[in-house]
Amino acid sequence: xxxxxxxxxxxxxxxxxxxxxxxxxxxxxxxxxxxxxxxxxxxxxxxxxxxxxxxxxxxxxxxxxxxxxxxxxxxxxxxxxxxxxxxxxxxxxxxxxxxxxxxxxxxxxxxxxxxxxxxxxxxxxxxxxxxxxxxxxxxxxxxxxxxxxxxxxxxxxxxxxxxxxxxxxxxxxxxxxxxxxxxxxxxxxxxxxxxxxxxxxxxxxxxxxx
Amino acid sequence: xxxxxxxxxxxxxxxxxxxxxxxxxxxxxxxxxxxxxxxxxxxxxxxxxxxxxxxxxxxxxxxxxxxxxxxxxxxxxxxxxxxxxxxxxxxxxxxxxxxxxxxxxxxxxxxxxxxxxxxxxxxxxxxxxxxxxxxxxxxxxxxxxxxxxxxxxxxxxxxxxxxxxxxxxxxxxxxxxxxxxxxxxxxxxxxxxxxxxxxxxxxxxxxxxx
Lengths: 210, 210
Prior knowledge:
Two copies of one chain form a homodimer.
Chain A: E1 2-5, H1 16-28, H2 31-34, E2 36-40, E3 43-45, E4 48-50, H3 54-58, H4 62-71, H5 87-91, H6 97-110, E5 114-117, E6 120-124, E7 133-137, E8 141-144, H7 151-175, H8 186-193
Antiparallel strand pairs in A: 1-2, 1-6, 3-4, 5-8, 6-7
Helix pairs in contact in A: 6-7
């Protein structure tokens, strides 16, 4: 899943033409409302692959985005409702996506070197036991931060964290108290981790830029 | 001091005219760059009152805003450099403005009921021993959050926290290790507080709206 982070994708020094183009896309998509938008996603499950068409993803509403975040970690993504069967193993846990997002959030609360306009988070997981992966990608419009935090990226990141945390809470409620798997919300994970080190999750990307 | 929080002051349902007006102001001021702008400030000090003219404040650059955040807690606001003599007693400490901003931040990371467009933080302190005060004011454009966090306000708030934290760190460095006052940065305060309760700092405002 590719999630473009930030309510605005235009950067201060952009040309008026590029600025107007970005502004329109941000308002037409969920970016302005939700602080992020889904650019694309696919799931390989037991009976095949689920991949909504690009044109459909472009028109996603806030409700569609919330639903897609659930479908992405479901064994039956094309059914209603999706089962969210992989919520705890992909989004939850100390090595899960939510924990990695919180680590990235700590970094963004402190770092003032870079502003990431129109950058994405790539979220991926395997069938096997390996931890799910979070990568910051698409660095075509990275600007110097000039001593200011990237409040645009950070705001969108917090919004994604909130959405994902809610999915985990719902899955925990649905699983009931007897379920052996311990699901963790953002607050639980932050409390357990204590004050975060400003570590960076940024890694080599598929584009080879990092 | 009145600080308007958020990189954007327009709300999704605004008319095109209002939207265009806000967008221009956000780009012309420090809002888009810094995630907040100063709307006005004054300091009563021993030898009189320091109050930059409204037209001057409107044209503040990022550098001016940083400087004003220092002047606001200085005993010599109209001298260069300002002494930041009140940094620890106004911004720092467990009841200081930074601690209150961090509490407000915890609330904004969780609450999805309201979006505060064009709202301000009023920061005030007295000569006496009373704790400095932080109030959320100007609720003319509060919209329903519809389950989404106010990532626009939150991002700007984090940017203000970072700026204030840097002033405290600088004051701490300047004071040296023998200074009896313990100044605290955002990270120290968050670590000491542990996972924050979603308490709200919102209180009665000067406009009587709350």
